[in-house]
Every structure is written in C-alpha cells, then in structure tokens.
Request: fold
Amino acid sequence: MTESFLHYVWQHQMFLPGLTTTDGQPVVVLRAGEPNHDAGPDFFNARLRIGDVEWAGNVEVHIKSSDWNAHRHQHDAAYNNVVLHVVYQHDADVTLQNGKTMPTLELKTFLHPSLVANYDSLMAPAAGSDIPCGARVGEVPSFLMTSFFERLTVERIEAKSETVRRLLEESHGGWEQTCYWLLARYFGGKVNALPFELLAKATDQRLLARWSDNRQRLEALLMGQAGLLEGYYEDDYPRTLQADYEALRAGASLSPIGDYLWKFHRLRPSSFPTIRISQLADLLSRTKNLFATLLSMTDVKELERLFCCQAAPYWNTHYQFDQTAAKVSAKRMGRMQAHTLIINAWVPLLFVYGAEHGQQQYKEQALSLLAQIAAEDNAVIRRWQAVGVAPANAAQSQALLQLTNVYCSNRRCLECRIGYHLLKHQ
Reply:
C-alpha cells in the first residue's frame, strides 16, 4: 500500500458507498478537492458533509493515522484547516494544533478487494515483464487506446521539441540554421549525434550554400571540418578532397573538430561517419534553403526522395579512406533511415514552428506525417505486439515508446489511462 495509491483513490472517489468516519459519522464527498503537489495538506478546497454539517477545507491522506503525528502535523498551523484525515488503517486518534480531534475516514473497509489486487498486480507484474498491464491490456476498449495514443504522440513530440528549442535559442531564432543543425545531429544516429552537431556548428551554413552546386566541394568542406582529412592518403579521392579543403580553408576561417570524436566501433559500416557525412553533402547539394524546402512538403513520399541521400561513388567500394570494401554497393540511405530523420528531426521542428507562430496547420501537418509512415520495428514495439497491441503507423509506435519509457518503466500506472481503466473495472 502506498500514499500515492490512496491519493488516487480519493481523487477519483474509487471507494464503496456508505462512507463513515471512525466514530460512525456518515461522510458524503461533494468535492474531493484539488491535489497539492507542494508542501501542506494533500488536497485543497474540498467540500464534505460529515454527519449533518457541511465542511469546506483541506484533506490529508496517510497510510496510518499515526503518520499524522510522525510528520508532526499536530504542531503545524498549515494543517489547521484540514477537515478530514483519510487513512488506509486507523491506529491512533490525532489532533489539530488547537487540540481538536481530527475526523478520520479509514478507507480499508471501503475499498473493493479487486481494486487493491489490480493495483498490486500493476506494481508487481510477472517476472521478466516490463509492461505492467500486459496480461490485461486486451480488456481496454480500442477507442480509449486510440485517444490515449493521440495524447502520447503529442507528449513524445513535445519531449523531442526540447532539443529543437535549445538549438533555436543557440541560433538566435534562425530556422534555417536550426534545421541544418538538427538534421545533421540525426544523421549521426545515437552514437555520433554529438560530433555531427558539432560539425554542423563548426561549418557555416552560408559557406555550404555558396558551394551547393558543387557536391565534391561540399564533401571536402564537411570531411575537412570533421577532422577526417588529416594525414597522408594513397587514394586519389581523399587527396582531391584534401586539396579542395585547403583551398576553401585559405579563403575562410575554418577550424576542424577533433577526429577523435567520431565513433566507428560496433557500428554497421553503412552507418560509419564517413558514409553519413558524404550523404549529408548530397542532401545539402540539392537545396540551398533546406528549411523552406521541407516546409513546402506535405507528403511523406516527397520527404523520402529528399532524404534518401547517396554517398559519392568512391564510397561504393569504401567505408573508410584507403580501405577497399569486399563488396561493391551504392551507399544510399534507405527508406527506414529517411523515416528516422522525418520522425526524430523534421516532425518535432515542424511542430515547434507551428507552435511558435501560432499556426495550428503545421502542428497538424507534423502529426499527419507520422500517420503516413509505417510503424517502427524495434524491441519495445515487438514487446507490445506480443501482448496484442500492434501500432498502425509511426504516430502510434511513437506513442508506445512514450508510454513505455515514461509510464511503464517508471510504474506510473496511476497517471496512465490504461492503468486507470484496469483499476476501475473489476
């Protein structure tokens, strides 16, 4: 038994009828009160009828009555306006600061046994399960799941928007700059996100725009700024890039980031930083105004065509400079990688743009893009599929990721609509 559960029961009035105080006075809850998350009583501005008298005041909740004294509320004037002490177990009479005995409601006898059992099962699920409601989630009506998913999708986008807002602040409100930085960050995936962001910030977008019609120069600029053109190379291609970079460096103030930042270990070769930087150069070579171009696209197919970037021909036979690969293959971003950029970079940026400009259509467009993309396939989604919850699209798979990471993993079942439904229904 926890106080958070008792708070939940009181707030939602999930108890049996016929409430009485420990001295036999009938209790009618006219208003449970407003939850207080700061210091002081647990619920403010409650309205109750105790016996024949209607009371307006605060409610304090404890597991045991004696917790009142243990917390020294009897000496605290902040609790003088408490009109009812709600406890799971009554083990002691308690008083206010003025010595008046506090009316007490013992909830233990007014809780349906299945409510407590449902709560216990959510808090202590079967061994090896990280979905507390996995065994019963099939009992939840589909309309409730759908509406909850919609809220969770927005929650997840808003969580990702924190990165967007950070970059927007650093760029002093420059949307083109923020877009470039953000997309570069997600070109790096989880492992190389930071060095890609540092690379983007070290490479002036205006300089990139100046050379947008010369793809090789763009790659030379990015590879050089990444610190990957230092030293001696045998192949003609890296030597050509070195020469191009030195020419660019002579005409601009360029400072490379450290090559030690890049991680290759335990990455699939197609995700090596060298390949991704070449693909980023391809993207930047096809549009001078990246943000404006993306803003005009409302269809996922258009975005896929833009984001399915291809590395330069040299990389068909290489993953790193001077190291010939055993197999010849064009290093083109697949549709799944394009979807990753749309989901994690473009959708949050578009959503924030709509919010900042008070234009709801862009926020709706962001959600619409997620609905056009197939559901993601990862370990979390597969666990939900195993208990019968199959997302229809990326909007719903993003919702499940939010549900798992924020609610399920932290056992926040009392804040979850699914948990509420399963607790309430016997």
In short: The longest strand covers residues 53-64. Residues 142-170 form the longest helix (29 residues). The chain has 17 helices and eight strands.
